[in-house]
Design goal:
This protein is an alpha+beta fold. The chain is 30% helix and 29% strand. The protein contains eleven helices and 22 strands. It has helices at residues 3-10, 47-59, 84-93, 99-112, 217-224, 232-247, 253-270, 281-290, 301-308, 317-320, 380-384; strands spanning 20-28, 34-41, 69-73, 118-130, 132-133, 139-140, 146-160, 165-168, 173-176, 181-183, 188-192, 194-196, 199-201, 204-209, 278-279, 315-316, 326-329, 334-337, 345-350, 353-358, 364-366, 369-371. The strands form eight sheets. Strands 1, 2, 3, 4, 7, 10, 11 and 14 form an eight-stranded antiparallel sheet that branches. It has a two-stranded antiparallel sheet with strand order 5-6. Helix 4 packs antiparallel against helix 5 (217-224) and helix 6 (232-247) packs antiparallel against helix 9 (301-308).
Length: 385
């Protein structure tokens, strides 16, 4: 799924556009006991509750693609009878009206989800009448030719509200606040099936994790049966290892700066396209070659890539490139530059010492104080006075 397709679904979670048919939930305590369950026709809920559920659902479709939201494909084995995809398909086709299937789903989640504390398993069913699109990209609400029938699951922590003082209007006094159990934003969740090319894709799912470095792989394995890609942090570490191991003693400042500038240029050229920009093994090697890596250092690149990232891995450029800053760090000095202005920082040998040289403009401040960057004024006039 791409960002536009995700945003299209998020727009459904408003009173005017809502087509959710059913909502179900199971409250689980810290000992993995089911405390209570509920199931309702979604639009029969009080308006205040509907808005709160909308917030939780939108959160499950939030964050960055490739970091918080991951497109996962089901292995073929999961689509066989008894497989994870086959079970989710039966759950979706039941429209959440089969109590036995729901109970089995709750049991599977409780058995696979590792979480210390209370949490709510929230599941919805929706049947979205997908509007057609004209050749100019405009939506035609009266030209729908497909229905996107899906379920979404959110796992939301349930914690005590914070202690404090509250104002009591009846007595016009302040008293200790009554603490109650509050459903918080989801830590993880998934959409099944995926909404790829604005159509139902039974072979894929969109997975959400609040913390990209803690994706709850045990939950993905037990409920989805899919394989997680490298996390955003792991991709960045793998890319840094690729640079260091490929260049070795040839890791010159200019080569590393060129890699950064070329990645920034790729991002700029790709920013209008909907799909996230990824680099496979061949493209990473081409990037290094273009950036000035010596040809002899690229001879064994394929093996280095396989060991650092994985044989068939593709790296998301947004995960490996620092688009916020270009940083040069020594034990005593840290220089941070706008990534688009990295060319202002260079190296030079002065008096036999390798130095970092920064091109200055006419606007320079030191601890908030503007300083002169041109030649020092003559002191002759001052001496005569």
């Amino acid at each position: 799924m791409i960002k536009q397709e995700i945003n299209e679904l998020k727009r459904l979670y408003t009173p005017a556009n809502c087509s959710i048919t059913r909502i179900c939930g199971c409250y689980v305590d810290g000992e993995k006991n089911k405390k209570t369950e509920f199931k309702d026709a979604f639009l029969s809920l009080p308006e205040e509750e509907i808005f709160k559920y909308f917030e939780l659902l939108r959160k499950t479709l939030s964050g960055s693609l490739g970091k918080n939201m991951l497109n996962l494909e089901f292995p073929l084995s999961t689509e066989e009878e008894g497989g994870t995809q086959e079970f989710l398909l039966r759950l979706r086709d039941s429209k959440l009206t089969d109590d036995a299937l729901l109970e089995e789903f709750y049991d599977r989640v409780i058995g696979s989800y590792e979480y210390v504390g209370n949490y709510l398993i929230l599941v919805i069913h929706d049947a979205y009448d997908v509007p057609g699109k004209a050749s100019d990209g405009l939506t035609m609400d009266d030209a729908s030719d497909t229905v996107f029938d899906y379920i979404m699951c959110c796992l939301c922590p349930v914690n005590l509200s914070k202690p404090g003082l509250s104002y009591h209007m009846d007595s016009n006094e302040f008293h200790n606040r009554v603490r109650d159990w509050v459903v918080e934003a989801p830590h993880t969740g998934f959409l099944f099936p995926a909404f790829n090319d604005r159509c139902t894709d039974l072979h894929s799912t969109l997975y959400y994790t609040k913390n990209p470095e803690e994706p709850h792989s045990e939950f993905v394995d037990g409920i989805l049966g899919a394989v997680l890609p490298l996390s955003a942090g792991s991709q960045k570490e793998a890319f840094q290892a690729l640079v260091e191991e490929t260049l070795g003693d040839f890791a010159e400042y200019e080569v590393v700066k060129n890699i950064h500038e070329n990645l920034t240029e790729m991002i700029e050229e790709h920013k209008e396209l909907p799909e996230p920009l990824t680099l496979d093994k061949r493209q990473v090697k081409d990037l290094f070659e273009k950036s000035g890596a010596p040809e002899e250092r690229l001879a064994g690149f394929e093996k280095i890539f396989d060991e650092a990232a994985g044989e068939n891995t593709s790296l998301l450029v947004d995960n490996v490139a620092n688009t916020r800053t270009f940083e040069v760090k020594t034990p005593d000095v840290v220089v941070k530059v706008n990534p688009e202005r990295a060319h202002l920082v260079n190296t030079m040998t002065l008096d036999g010492k390798r130095c970092l040289v920064i091109e200055l403009s006419d606007q320079v401040e030191v601890n908030g104080i503007s300083i002169r960057t041109g030649p020092s004024p003559s002191l002759e006039g001052l001496e005569e006075e």
